[in-house]
Each structure stands twice: as C-alpha cells, then as structure tokens.
UniProtKB/TrEMBL annotation:
It is found in: Cell membrane. The lineage of its organism: Eukaryota, Fungi, Dikarya, Basidiomycota, Agaricomycotina. Residues 133-329 form the NodB homology domain. Its cofactor is Co(2+). It is a lipid-anchor; GPI-anchor. This is chitin deacetylase. Residues 1-24 form the signal peptide.
Amino acid sequence: MQPFCARISYALCMLGLLVLNVQASDRTTEQGEAAISNPYEECTSYGYEPVATQMKNYPGLWQLAAILPGDSAATDKWNSISSTISTNIPVKMLPPPSNYSSEDPDCWWTATQCTTAKLSSIPPDISASPEPSTLGYGFDDGPNCSHNAFYDFLQSQNQKATFYFIGSNVASFPLEAQRALTDGHEICAHTWSHPAMTTISSENAFAELWYCVQMIKLVIGVTPTCWRPPFGDVDDRIRAIANALGLQTIMWKYDTADASINGNTITEQTVEDNYNSFIDIASQGTFSSVGAILLTHERDNFTMSEAVKFYPQLKKVFQHIVPVGVSLNKTQPYIEAEYGLPSFEQYISGAVTNRLRPPKHLHQLIQTPANNRWLPRMRLKALLLWTLVAQLH
Ligand SMILES: *[C@@H]1O[C@H](CO)[C@@H](O)[C@H](O)[C@H]1NC(C)=O
Ligand SMILES: *[C@@H]1O[C@H](CO)[C@@H](O)[C@H](O)[C@H]1NC(C)=O
Ligand SMILES: *[C@@H]1O[C@H](CO)[C@@H](O)[C@H](O)[C@H]1NC(C)=O
Ligand SMILES: *[C@@H]1O[C@H](CO)[C@@H](O)[C@H](O)[C@H]1NC(C)=O
Ligand SMILES: [Zn+2]
C-alpha cells in the first residue's frame, strides 16, 4: 500500500501533520474545551462519557420532562412534596385569557407581572438587586456551545455573573457548563426543556426542575438553590413546587428582549433601544436606592455580542455589577458548602470569587481517566509514526 504522504511532498505532509498535532483540541476536559477559540469547532458535538452513560436516567433532550419509570429518588421526592402543592390553582393557557380574574388570585406573572406570592408560605420573587446602584447581572438559556468568546470577555473584565442553565444544554455541552463554575460565576436552574411552566401539570413541572438540577449536579458538581422560569411564566402553583425543591425564584423587571427577535415587531434595533433606554433611566438615578435586574441571554452570538457591546455603558451608569446571589449576600449558593460566593461587601472590594472555599471537588465526581485526554493526540502521534515507518520501509 502506498503511504499517503508519499503522494505529495513528504516534508510538506509531515509539516501538515505536525500542525494538526499541535492544533488538535482536547475535548475531554473543561480546560481543553475552554481553550477552543473557533466557535464553529466549539459547537460541533463531542462525546462525554460521564454524561452519555447517564442519559438513560434523564428525559430526552428538549422533551417535556416527566418522572421516569423506576426513578425512585424522583418519585420519593415528588411524593413527599405533592400534598403541599395547591390543586386549586388551575393549569394555565397562554396568552392569559381575558376572563382571568383581574384580582390575580394566583400571582400569575405572565398576566400581571406579580412577584409577591399570594400564598403566605412562599417568599416573594427576587426581581431587583436590593443593593443601591447595583445591577444583578445574569444570562439565561446557556450553556451555549459558542460561549468561549463571551466568557473570555467576562474574565478579561474580572466580571462574574449569574447563569440560568437549561438542563438539556448542560447535557449537550457539559464542558461549557463546567467552565461557568470554574470561572467563578453563579449557576441557577432554568428547567430541563424550557416550557411555559404554568401550562403543564404539577408533576411535569416538578420533573422539569428536578432533572435540570440533577443534571447540573452531575455535570458541574453543585446543586443550585435558585431558578428562573422560562418566559417568566410562573404562578403560585409553580412557585410552591420550586420552593419545595429549595429553589429561590429569580425574576427581572427590565427586559432587553434580546432572545425575542422575530424580524417584525422585535428587531435588533429594538434590542439596542431597550439597552439604551435602560442605560438612560439608570443614568437618571432610577436605581439609586434599589438596584435592578435586566433580562439578557447567553443564547447565541447576537445576545452575547450585545452583552459585550453594552457592558462598558452599564459599568458607567451602575456603581456595581454583580451576580444576583452576590447582591443578596448569598454566600452559600449551593447545597454543597464547599462552593461559596463572596458577600456583596467582599465582591465590591475586589474579592470577586470566594477563595476560602474554592470548588476543589469540581470534576472529581465525573472526571474521565486522566490518560483519556491524551487520546486524540496519541492517535495523531501514531499516525505520524506510521507515516515515518512507511517511508523508511
Ligand atoms: C374562561 O373562559 C374559558 C373558555 O372561554 C373557560 O374554559 C374558563 O373556565 C373561563 N375561566 C374562568 C376563570 O372563568
Ligand atoms: C449557540 O450559539 C450559536 C452561535 O450563535 C448558535 O448557532 C446556536 O444555535 C446556539 N445554540 C443554541 C442551543 O441556541
Ligand atoms: C460572534 O461571532 C464572531 C464570528 O464567529 C466571533 O468572532 C465573535 O467572537 C463572537 N462573539 C461572541 C461574543 O461570541
Ligand atoms: C449584605 O451584607 C451587607 C454587609 O453586612 C449589608 O450591609 C447588606 O444590607 C446585606 N444585603 C442584603 C441584601 O442582605
Ligand atoms: Zn429562557
């Protein structure tokens, strides 16, 4: 057999192989994946065994979650909380029908922007940063496969944020999800498949939260204690389920509409206008006694590019830009006590990550064997060797 390198200039071919060898990306570790600078390469799928072997224990990607048959942990949890979930609050239809009571008995955000539950057992949602002139900074719908440029930008600014992760995205891009914690960001849940939660049954709503949280725990190693409802669609029935799972409901009051472009009523210009008017009211002192939360997305290149573009202006009009949990002094944002957030005071004095309790157990749970990361390189090295031997032959 003719070795393929013999067909063209041998030196050129070897050079090509060497370059390939140097550039072969390591797609088996969070660090390797974070080093990829080509967004198209980052967005090609990669196998990640620790997740692949577990997918049988999770709902299908982007499928409405339901408790899987035989999942005793999920079943037990649901059985232990289901009796506390009101059955008097009906499953909703969207958009809110005109006959929905103007008294808003269910504190249905989609109908009235209600954020203070009518049920006394449920704490109010967080829709603003309590600290003056402070932006509670965060992004929905990640992890997006092409997020390295954005995360690199945040790193260059020493800026941390809150990321509301979709379980199905975490399962598809686990190494991207891990980077968020490594970089010192806060992670909240944003459901398994992104449904409008008030329109589904209580058991499905439970499963949407449960499997999202379990996937974050599996992949990133932490159990979130906060969530954001997709589309903001929440009422007291859904709040009660989240509350029973230990999840604080994080809303917003201002919206860039960056993920709602429809080429018609909402265009790229609308998003820029929204950013600009938010920046305007901030500069007029609107947030001088209570800060703000603005809805923005990690979703795609456009939403992340807008975030990068407007960051300098936001920095000018807010004294502080911090993850939402930091603005709440939520120094233990996860069930696992070893992963901390700095307090607000610590953050604004420059300690933007909590070095006292670093995520030292990160990845240990699911790390692939150390030698696996060399596999792609070893394959190329073997190819090189084979070519060389074939030439000598
Ligand atoms: C509102 O109208 C729909 C259909 O028109 C009906 O099914 C529903 O029961 C009504 N809801 C209330 C609260 O009256
Ligand atoms: C992530 O961003 C890329 C680049 O903008 C986009 O093509 C892709 O659809 C996004 N992924 C998801 C799941 O939205
Ligand atoms: C958006 O995409 C362009 C072209 O691929 C890339 O150079 C840029 O870094 C991306 N921006 C962000 C914020 O992801
Ligand atoms: C956070 O802690 C600081 C310092 O103790 C305090 O001034 C501030 O009110 C706290 N903020 C919240 C939201 O608890
Ligand atoms: Zn969303």
